[in-house]
From TrEMBL:
Spans traversing the lipid bilayer: 30-57, 69-88, 127-153
Organism annotation: Elaeis guineensis var. tenera
Keyword Membrane: yes
Highest taxon above the source species: Eukaryota
Designated name of the protein: Uncharacterized protein LOC105036275
Pfam families for this protein: DUF2062
Domain named DUF2062: residues: 15-151
């Protein structure tokens, strides 16, 4: 099982990351793109993050590196699920809204459709929490990722090619002389 997880991580995360780094993008652009993809990947509504990343790529165009944004979004998915509750609680705190109880009874009421207003309010609170936290997350990740990508680009970028050599040696150069 452990070997399968390592193989999966290499195929899905490490190999694409190395391909991105080897293409020669700037470390600052890669860092910003990874921070943006991660921040958008933490959006507390599952299934929406890919569209948010696509929109960001379309708006920012050459200022971000699209494959890095999407890879970071993919990597952030498990973290997204773990941060829904903290975003919910932050939104409740900011808005002084009602506390949404996360109990088995609440889950039963959600599944039977009896808590629709409470669910909408809790989604609003989670979105509010993410909106407030997102600029801080983006800024902190960008600062952390710059030295990481600087190192990766230095370490894994292809070695610059040697200067071009003359195609023909001097002995092969033939000069055509006209007879007069």
């Amino acid at each position: 099982m452990r070997l399968g997880l390592i193989s999966w991580m290499n195929r899905r995360v490490v190999d694409p990351l190395l391909q991105i780094v080897r293409k020669g993008a700037e470390p600052k652009q890669l860092a910003f793109s990874a921070a943006l993809g991660t921040t958008l990947g933490l959006f507390p509504i599952c299934g929406v993050t890919v569209f948010l990343c696509g929109l960001a790529i379309a708006v920012l165009r050459s200022r971000c590196h699209a494959p890095t944004v999407m890879l970071a979004n993919f990597i952030a998915t498990p973290i997204e699920l773990s941060l829904v509750i903290p975003f919910l609680r932050l939104g409740e705190f900011i808005s002084h809204g009602p506390h949404f109880a996360l109990t088995s009874d609440a889950l039963k009421r959600v599944l039977t459709g009896q808590a629709s207003r409470e669910v909408l309010v809790s989604v609003y609170h989670a979105l509010l929490g993410w909106i407030v936290a997102a600029p801080f997350i983006l800024g902190a990740l960008d600062v952390v990722f710059i030295p990481c990508f600087s190192y990766l680009v230095r370490r894994f970028s292809p070695v610059p090619s040697s200067p071009p050599t003359l195609l023909h040696s001097l002995s092969e150069v033939k000069i055509k002389v006209r007879d007069v």
